[in-house]
Amino acid sequence: MCLTGGTGTDCGGKVGKNQLITPMIDGGQQHSCIRPETYCTVWVRERGVQIHSYAYRIRGFGRIADYAVRWADMLSDKGKHRAQVLSFWSKYGLEPTLEAFGVRRRTLYLWKEKVVKGEGKLEALNDQPRTPRRRRKRLWPREIIEEIERKKTRKVRKPKGYKASAPGHCGAFDTVEYFLDCMRRYVIPFTDQYSRFSFAWATQSHGSLAAREFFGIVREIFPYPLQSVLTDNGSEFMKHFDEELRRLHKNHWHTYPKTPKMNAHVERFNRTIQEEFIDYHEDLLVNPNEFNRELIPWLLWYNAERPHWSLKLKSPVQFLLQRNPPLCNSWWPNTCGCKR
């Protein structure tokens, strides 16, 4: 037997909605889909199968089934409780209802009025949305809106698919925060995306002035002029830092929020310096000057001697000298990559 709710896949699209399929003696097909929504009466003989409505010749079946569907799917828990209270009221009277359920007289009449206005549909007892039909709108002077739009500047993002093709094409900056002995300390790293030449500096400040000062140190140390600078959206890379880049006519690219993979080179350097140096000298961060003095020898070893897999087991200095030998006499005359 099958109670089907439409032309579904089980019935092959040949059985009407909510029809009863009874296999005939001479053979037939038995289905297994049940969906009680409509209640028409149809008699059809096709391929030895008799099809008719399961509500055939049952008076009031459709109305009762409609109530059942509304009660199960369209009535909330509060609506069901109110419907039960109204049913108890109509059966036992007003005083027992007030005593049994602890509701007020006017509340009962209000629920009854809702059902009457809803044409007897129980879903009228559900809580209605209390959102006002007309909401107040903020009216700002046009001059203020224009000034806000003027000051609102869109951040320039790194071009999609960009890859540095020469030293200094893109320098990446970041900030790592440490909390030690109820004090905050910050390490600002730098990495050249092409040569992997890196530098870092510890500071007590998280402001843009400290980031601008570190940018000046990088300009003195790195032998190539930076054309573009990539940072995240931190406040330390705004205001004074951004103004310095504008003054020097440098491109300032920002990563998308919560997207560290856009600044993957400096993020990888953060892990290296954390695992190879900071984990062993973290107590020195209390005094940034002392920490920086210990950090300089490690940075010299990192850039001049430590092999990098991405550079075919060459250090950043060796990689730069191989690409530009004249730098040997101008920037690193005493490094291991020099040949006199």
Explain the layout of strands and helices.
Blueprint: E1 2-5, E2 17-23, E3 44-46, E4 49-53, H1 61-74, H2 77-92, H3 94-101, H4 105-117, H5 142-151, E5 171-173, E6 176-180, E7 183-192, E8 198-203, H6 208-221, E9 228-231, H7 239-247, E10 251-254, H8 264-281, H9 288-304, H10 316-323
Parallel strand pairs: 5-9, 9-10
Antiparallel strand pairs: 1-2, 2-4, 3-4, 5-7, 6-7, 7-8
Helix pairs in contact: 2-3, 6-7
Give a brief outline of the structure.
The protein is α+β, with helices and mostly antiparallel strands. It is built from ten helices and ten strands.
General description of the model:
Helices cover 37% and strands 15% of the residues. It has 340 residues and is an alpha+beta fold. The protein folds into three domains: 52 residues, no CATH class; 51 residues; 159 residues, 2-Layer Sandwich (Nucleotidyltransferase, domain 5). Strands 5, 6, 7, 8, 9 and 10 form a six-stranded mixed sheet that branches. A four-stranded antiparallel sheet has the order 1-2-4-3, with no helix packed on it. A hairpin with a 5-residue loop joins strand 7 and strand 8. The N terminus and C terminus are likely disordered.
Mean pLDDT: 81
Biggest beta sheet attributes: 6 strands, mixed
Unreliable spans: 1-47, 332-340
Secondary-structure element series = EEEEHHHHHEEEEHEHEHHH
What fraction, in percent, of the residue positions are helical? 25-40%
Strand portion: 15-25%
Proper CATH architecture of the largest domain: 2-Layer Sandwich
Determine Rg (CA atoms, Å). Answer: 39 Å
The name CATH uses for the topology of the largest domain is Nucleotidyltransferase, domain 5
Number of helices: 10
Distance between the termini: 97 Å
Spatial shape: elongated
| Name of the top-level CATH class of the largest domain | Alpha Beta
Count of structural domains? 3
Write out the CATH superfamily name of the largest domain: Ribonuclease H-like superfamily/Ribonuclease H
Decide which structural class fits the backbone: alpha+beta
**Annotation, overall tally of beta strands:** 10
